[in-house]
Amino acid sequence: MQVQDVMTGTPRACRADDTANEAAQIMWECDCGVVPIVDETGRVAGIVTDRDITMAAYFQGRPLSQITITSVMSPDVCTCSPVADLSDAERLMQERQIHRVPVVSDDGCLVGILSLSDVARGVKRTGGLRQRDGAAQELLQTVTAISEPRSSHQTSARM
User: Fold this and answer.
1) Does residue 114 belong to any structural domain of this protein?
2) CA dihedral over 14, 19, 23, 25, signed as positive or negative
3) Residue 154 covered by a domain
4) 77 forms bridges with which residues in the sheet?
5) What pTM was estimated for this model as a whole?
6) Residue 159 maps to a domain
7) Mind listing the pLDDT tens digit of every residue in the chain (159 residues)?
8) Looking at residue 114, which CATH number applies to its domain?
């Protein structure tokens, strides 16, 4: 199975000159916990999570409308290709302990996002949970790996 078979296509994104308020609004409207940050050409330049926004609001003590995305986003983004093998993307999620991976075209433009929920739905759809096959084992390993406490920040990676 490939990433494009289970990813969420055309996710909403923010630009680097947006505020944390715009990212929080997207998260609320789309029921998601992450927003990719793209540059003027649509290439992924960063990523911001609901936790990033919450911690920024707490520590900066300012309204979200006064907090720039660039001050809270992570520029260290791990991405994958839509044609990447799903098991490779899961290994990336395991290694980096991340729940979501932006999916980019060959030129780095955002085309989707792969979440742990997308992977779980894909495994369920193929019957992997009932068959106790490799896909279900891989999903379990991914959930276990991303649930471990992080020891340090790793470097960026792209499949």
Assistant:
1) yes
2) negative
3) no
4) none
5) 0.79
6) no
7) 899 999 999 899 999 999 999 999 999 999 899 999 999 999 999 999 999 999 999 999 999 999 999 999 999 999 999 999 998 998 999 899 899 999 999 999 999 999 988 888 777 776 655 555 566 666 666 665 655 665 544 434 444
8) 3.10.580.10
